[in-house]
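Lab notes, practical 5.
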Amino acid sequence: MKLHADRFDVQTISGYGPGWVAIDKKEFTHSLIVGSRGELVDWPCQRFEDLTIAHFEQLAEMGAEVVILGSGAKNRFPAAALMAPLINRRIGLESMSTQAACRTYNILAGEGRHVVAALLLESDK
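Output from the prediction step:
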């Protein structure tokens, strides 16, 4: 599926599919963090079950007003204890499938919000 942003001065998710996502038309096949202020970093997590508090500390350090967690092929919610770094900084977290997270990120980024999407790109292996 191809996506189109409302604003072109922010980094956008230009496409996605099973096991891949394109950021400004560059394709990635590993989990990553993308932000509306140009953040683009590898996220060292391959499966939802591997998430640790350190992953959420990394997200909290980015200082976004909201974090969107793309939890893989289906919507899953992390344990409350894992979200503590975000809660302590009053940063909102929305969890949804990675495909829904891609669409939601583009909408919020297009509105000028400081949003970060942490996208789990699980392999079929």
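Observations recorded by the TA: The longest strand covers residues 13-17. The CA atoms of residues 68 and 117 lie 5 Å apart.
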